[in-house]
Design a protein that fits this description.
heterodimer; A: mainly alpha; two-stranded antiparallel sheet; B: mainly alpha; about 0% strand; elongated
Chain lengths: ~450, ~425
Amino acid sequence: MALPSFEQIVRVLSLEDYNTRVVVLGVMALGTASGLIGTFLLLRKRALTADALSHATLPGIAVAFMVMVAMGSDGKSLGGLLLGAFVFGCIGVLGIVGIRKTTRLKDDAAIGIVLSVLFGLGLCLLRIATELPSGSAAGLSGFIFGKASSMVASDALIMAGVALGIAISTIALRKEWTLLCFDEEFAAVQGWPTLLLDVILMAMVAVVTVIALQSVGLVLAVAMLIIPAACARYWTTKITTMLMASALIGCLSGWLGAVVSALVPRMPTGPIIVLICGFWFVVSFILGPNNGLLIRQLTRRRLNRRISMQHILRAMWEVRESEHTSNFSTEDVLPLRSWNKRTVEQLLRRCSKLHFATREPNASWRLTEKGSAEASRIVRNHRLWEVYLITYADIAPSHVDRDADMIEHVLGKSLVAQLEKLLDATGLPDIPDSPHALGGST
Amino acid sequence: MTWSIIDTWIIIIGALCAAGCAIPGTILVLRRMSLMGDAISHTVLPGIAIAFLITGNRDPMAMLIGAVVVGLLTAFLVQTIQSLGNVEAGASMGIVFTVLFAFGLVLMRQAVDHVDIDPDCVLYGSIELAWFDQDPDGWGIPRGAIVNGVMLLANLFVMLLFYKELKITSFDPALAKSQGIQPAFMHYLLMTMTAATAVAAFETVGSILVVAMFIVPPATAYLLTNRYGMMFALAIGISIASAVLGHISAITVPTWFGFSGTSTAGAMAVATGVLFFVAWVASPSQGIVAKQWHRISVRLLVLREDILGILWRLEERGESTVLPEQLSEAIGSPRLLIRFALIGLQKKNAVTKINLHWSLTTSGRDSATKLVRAHRLWEVYLDAHYPQDSNQLHQTAERLEHVTTPEMQSMLGDAKEDPHGSRVPDDT
């Protein structure tokens, strides 16, 4: 694989060549449009319906070609072909709805049936179309895997126009579609025409799919719709931000894909764009701040650390309380929970790092002033909850420990204040006595 | 149409491949995972491309291993992204298979110098040429027939070996787990079967027919039966029928319009669709016709009973005959349906017609008495137990009277008067 020279890179990036210019602008417009409409498609859980839709366009292309040839033209008019594609895409969606509504088959089977049967029909018709005496059907199979290099300026203009139309309708219908995606029943009760909104949404999806046919191809068109939106989901929880992020990712992937395929020989544009989308997905899946893999692992670890720290502090406090000694060894803490010696030692070391405990001579430990304060807070929360459970929930004193053990970490100030009020804290000592024997199983 | 040995072999290969696909397909459809079949048959492509790049030739074993590994990877990634990434199943599938398929296409373009395979062939396959691909000592049996035949036998073997395990994990994974069957193992076994079948079939018939054969014949069978074993049998039968029908129409139908023929794989996919459509419309239990027929016959039954009730109440008021127009107005049903219902009643000898006027016969009066008695007793019962608006009372009783069994009626009591003050007729 020959690396492109510096001059080549500059030429492509500055859009000097006519061909590059057309392709880059076209796929960027496509990426933006599909990113916008794909957001609603993804939220509406229709990802694979769009896949069936794009496969269903193939017979439409063939039929449109044959009709145009029969009418005397050479069948090359892109507008006519795309109109046929659009009509059959809609037929495909209607087929899915029909199968789902009138049989006991579920969505998956309905989608699979429409997708494979209509695509098979498309292949049959394409083969027949190649035999037509006038007109040349050779270019038609380019719609299957996409053939960006065949794009001309007017195609790019159509794509830009469609992108603009999609952007305007997204802005206009943002609120309605959002409601449709998140709470359809509520939208219906509020008097929104949900069916009409749904139809408009799917029609927009069909339009984007159809303009994606030429550059990305019908097998991969669905990727342009769902992957940018799925990426954006990991970066935000706000619909407006998600729309912008999704459009940006779609646009950027389109641009990068077109540039790479212009620079590297034998790189088909459509698949490269999809691979770049896939790359963004992996990045977002791992690094995204909303539900990303890394952030979730980090929060979980942080929570686990905080909880185990609070466990060891309470254990130390309880040992000090029941043994009436300020110095204690690892063995004294060990029976309080089901943990092993190594964990306890690790936790104690971390305690000393945070100045919660200090190591005394002959392998014993002591709570510091700071540790004592923090431990007393946790023990107090724990016991307040225990007293609350015994008083108000009629739970036996021997059974409250476990419940309180889980909730002590998340009791906020206001909840503690409420507990104090409920239990009339004035009558309780600052730190109530434990209602049950301390020390685990002993 | 000229038939040759080539056509016979095309049908045999198509049928073997279709039957092989129907087995994992049935389980996929039952588990509502049909689209995993679609996803995996797409991702066979990168598997094969990688196998090509590593071995440098078309070694079938390497292709099989490559495709199965990538197929399992697809299943695993779909699962992982779905559960770890909070992505809905369909979207997760869409992301994984498109990206892997795109990767396969790029690999193929890059490796175009080394291997003779193009993406179009992945879609269509080359079943028309399969007969020419024979091993020298293969007794004249094409390689495609051997590959697909072996795959069919392997699928049959696995299906029979794990018959009840597959069944129980499909319908009740929790029960399966409590019985010591691992649903996860069965899941990946099914995915392996799917990927292996897809790769065996794709070279001869192309990936599009594989998807059709995975999903459409089992879905058709699902509309025809409620039994697990029967569904396998029907799916296999329907897929074989589609293969035969598909090839025959591929070489005949276009000739009616002056063309020479069309893609056999495509036509077989369309044939599965045609058979599905037939079952959709005409299935004895699930079809549109059967469902509509059932609906209409229930409607006519209710209508006949309503007419009897009206005639009885007219007699109570001293009128004994009625015109169909009056009935149509009183019940609010189209006149045609009223006519059907009246003719039905006439056949049962419940009503007679004198000069366009209809009236009850003695036996009709007996059935009508039973109906009105049930109606009024229901009103009494409802009024006593669920006090409500008296108009509402009539509406509910009007519906219940048609489904009242003698046992139910005996529990409704023995009142003499209904809440509106009308007499409850005695049981005759």
